[in-house]
Design goal:
Elements (H helix, E strand, L loop, with lengths): L7 H27 L6 E6 L11 E2 L3 E3 L8 H11 L3 E5 L4 H9 L3 E6 L1 H10 L6 E6 L12 H9 L4
Parallel strand pairs: 1-4, 1-5, 5-6
Antiparallel strand pairs: 2-3, 3-4
Helix pairs in contact: 1-4, 2-5
The structure holds iron/sulfur cluster (SF4).
Iron/sulfur cluster binds next to α2.
Length: about 160
């Protein structure tokens, strides 16, 4: 893949660009996001955050449904969104599934956890949808055993001015 041949310096510059872009989009959409009721919001997390050695999530077409086995941080996210009465949580196998989920579920807001490049692509995919998006970057990316800042995730999920 072409991206793999990027030099270290180019990768750093590219990631900096995605970081600036996604942080700007988060700021622009934060107010609107906070005005959307919890039950009109969905959450998308990457499947690479799962602990695959213990995961018992139910596999669907393009995503998993977390079974709350307490094997990874998705467990805490799942419990919190149920408590707040979010519309749904999707453990995505890939970003492309977002479009069909939106068509089926018609949410008004999305919280997405991903690496910066996926976050950038998601903002682009959703550019013309009437949705408020908040992106939370992974603190450890790399396609397997990735990690997110749970405190940051909870902070974003709880934002609500309704
Ligand atoms: S908490 Fe959910 S996603 Fe994480 S390992 Fe268990 S079933 Fe899989």
């Amino acid at each position: 893949m072409k991206l793999c041949r990027l030099t270290k310096k180019n990768k750093k510059q590219r990631n900096q660009f995605y970081k600036i872009f996604t942080e700007k989009q988060n700021r622009i959409q934060a107010k609107e996001f906070a005005c959307i009721p919890f039950n009109k919001r969905i959450v998308c997390v990457p499947h690479c955050m799962r602990n695959t050695s213990v995961c018992i999530a139910l596999e669907k077409d393009g995503y998993y449904l977390c079974a709350e086995c307490n094997g990874c941080k998705i467990n805490d996210i799942s419990i919190l969104i149920k408590k707040l009465a979010y519309q749904a949580l999707y453990v995505l196998k890939g970003g492309k599934k977002i479009e069909s989920i939106i068509k089926e579920q018609t949410p008004k807001a999305i919280v997405g956890i991903a690496c910066f490049i996926e976050g950038y692509q998601a903002f682009k995919i959703l550019e013309y949808e009437s949705l408020a998006v908040q992106f939370i970057p992974l603190i450890k990316d790399g396609c397997v055993a990735t990690d997110a800042d749970l405190a940051e995730v909870k902070k974003v999920l709880k934002q609500c001015n309704v």
